[in-house]
Design goal:
This protein is α/β, with parallel strands linked by helices. It is globular and about 50 Å long.
Length: about 210
Amino acid sequence: MPATTEWIVVVPVKGTAQAKSRFGSGDHSALALAMAADTVAAAMAAESVAGVLVVTTAEASAIFDDLGAFVIVQETAGLASAIDLGVATATELGEPWRGIAVLLGDLPALTPAELEAALAAARSYPLAMVSDAAGDGTVLITASSGSVHSPRFGVGSSSAHRAEGYMPLEVSALSGLRNDVDSASGLLRLDGRLGERTTRLAAEQA
C-alpha cells in the first residue's frame, strides 16, 4: 500500500442531555458540545488531516456543520456504534494514501500542532494509539493506509488497544491531546489552555 500522507479523523460526539454526567446534576450538553467543537476545530486545522467526520445526533449537528466537518447523524448514543459507523464511512470515502484516525471529542485544550505530531509519528505503524494522561484510557487510535481498526474504547481501553496491536505513541502527559475532560476539576486544570468555545461557555457559567 502507498505510504500514509494524510488522514480522515472520526470524532464521536454524544450530543445529548446526558453528556458529561460526571460534572454533576443538570444538563451539561452545551459544555460538552463546546469542548467537542474545539476538538474538531483543532483537528480540522492539523496539516495532514484531509477531513473530519463527526458522528452525532441531529440536534447537535449544526455546530459541526458550521465548522465544515462532514456530519453523520446517528440518534443512538452508543460510543462503540458511533465509532463503527464513522470508521465504515471513512473507509468508503478513503483513498490509498489516507489513514483513518479515531479521536475522542472531549479534548478542549488540543492544538493542531499536538495532533499533527501524533499523526506524523503514527505513520510509522499499521496501528497506533495515544493513552489519556492517566494511562488507563485512550484518546486517539490510528490505522495507517491498508490497516484495519479494532476499536476497544471503554474502561481499561489502553490495555485493550495494546492487546489488539496498537503501538503506544510517546506524547507528553501535559499535551492537550492526552487531557480529556470528564469533570469540572479536569476542566479547571486546563484553565488558560482551553479552546475559544469552551473558554467562552465556562466563563458564562461561572
